[in-house]
Design brief:
Helix content is about 40%, strand content about 25%. The chain is α+β, with helices and mostly antiparallel strands and about 350 residues long. It folds into two domains: about 160 residues, ATPase, nucleotide binding domain (Nucleotidyltransferase, domain 5, 2-Layer Sandwich), CATH 3.30.420; about 170 residues, ATPase, nucleotide binding domain (Nucleotidyltransferase, domain 5). The strands form five sheets. Strands 3-2-1-9-10 form a five-stranded mixed beta sheet, sandwiched between helices. Strands 13-12-11-17-18 form a five-stranded mixed beta sheet, sandwiched between helices. Helix 3 packs across helix 4. The radius of gyration is 21 Å and the shape is flat. The two termini are about 25 Å apart. The N terminus is likely disordered.
Length: about 350
């Protein structure tokens, strides 16, 4: 009866606390918030100026007294205080800034390679932000549930989640992770690779936001049928003045080749370490790919070519982890099996 009362008056939340974006899903409503993981702080007063999309607009453009901070790095908390403020803001926003009678229970998705210290940092910051109780779930498990894989069955399920800070590769069976590999090479590394490529080849310095736009618009993992080009603006490092140049999909693919090689290597290691019975399931069912990185053109073709296995792209790759965490939160039996 007490649990019924508490559940009635609290909006329990599932949070995908990502390096690039934070997503929040609410029981019965699905994903209700999707915002960049950025906080703008007034350095003079230490007050929060903006959070999310508004704060992201300030990256590299804010005046000296305002600092736009990305408090998450490589999937984990890099700035405890700012992360707490960000989570508190998102919880209040989801609750429409009203005070609920009971603080929410929160499930937070974290990378599979997370350390005990990093787990404690996530738990403590979420509790400080207003949660009553915090459960941690590994991102590949949440993503697998979110894309509809039968994780509770005694079959091998393989998922690749290419996020902003980490790429998670996991083999899942009977509500447990049989093998997982978390590499801190993902969307942010791709942006950095594009910045470095343009800098090295053209002596042009572009911002990380421009690099992200290039990646989204013309980035590819496999040669395209039709050539794509994009105009980029930056600062010429030789003469120091603004300059514009046109970059092609072939050049971007060359810039991203090392990043994709690292991801493929992690996938191959996972396949090598998969027990034979589960490996036979994966041969039949293939691999599911989720996360923002799965939206880059040709990722499925490259993986299919490198592994020889069927590749399925998630229908809603950006929301998979948040949706999966929400499903787990609504199922007490599954929650008890998959929390870490």
């Amino acid at each position: 009866m007490v649990n019924f009362f508490w559940n009635l008056f609290s909006n329990d939340l599932a949070i995908d606390l990502g390096t690039a974006n934070t997503l929040v899903s609410v029981k019965g409503q699905g994903v209700v918030l999707r915002e960049p993981s950025v906080v703008a702080i007034n350095k003079t007063t230490d007050e929060v100026v903006a959070v999310g999309a508004e704060a992201k607009q300030m990256l590299g453009r804010a005046p000296g007294n305002i600092e736009a901070i990305r408090p998450m790095k490589d999937g984990v908390i890099a700035n405890f205080g700012v992360t707490e403020k960000m989570i508190r803001h998102f919880i209040n926003k989801v609750h429409n800034d009203r005070k609920t009678l009971v603080r929410p229970r929160v499930v937070v998705a974290v990378p599979s390679g997370i350390t005990q210290v990093e787990k404690r940092a996530v738990r403590d910051s979420t509790l400080s932000a207003g949660a009553r109780e915090v459960f941690l779930i590994e991102e590949p498990m949440a993503a697998a549930v979110g894309v509809g894989l039968p994780v509770q069955e005694p079959w091998g399920n393989m998922i690749i989640d290419i996020g902003g800070g980490t790429t998670e590769v996991a083999i899942i069976s009977m509500s447990g992770i049989v093998y997982s590999k978390s590499i801190r090479i993902a969307g942010d590394e791709m942006d950095e690779a594009i910045v470095n490529y343009v800098k090295k080849k053209y002596n042009l310095l572009i911002g990380s936001r421009t690099a992200e736009e290039v990646k989204i618009n013309i980035g590819s993992a496999y040669p395209l049928e039709k050539r794509l080009t994009m105009e980029v603006k930056g600062r010429d490092l030789v003469v120091g003045i603004p300059k514009t140049l046109v970059i092609s999909d072939e050049e971007v693919r060359e810039a991203l080749s090392e990043t994709f090689s690292s991801i493929i290597e992690a996938v191959k290691i996972a396949l090598e370490r998969t027990p034979p019975e589960l490996a036979s399931d994966i041969v039949d069912k293939g691999i599911v790919v989720a996360g923002g990185g799965s939206m880059i053109k040709g990722v499925d073709i490259l993986l299919r070519q490198e592994t020889g296995l069927p590749i399925t792209l998630a229908d809603d790759p950006l929301s998979a982890v948040a949706l999966g965490a929400g499903i787990v939160l609504a199922d007490p039996k599954l929650l008890s099996k998959v929390t870490i």
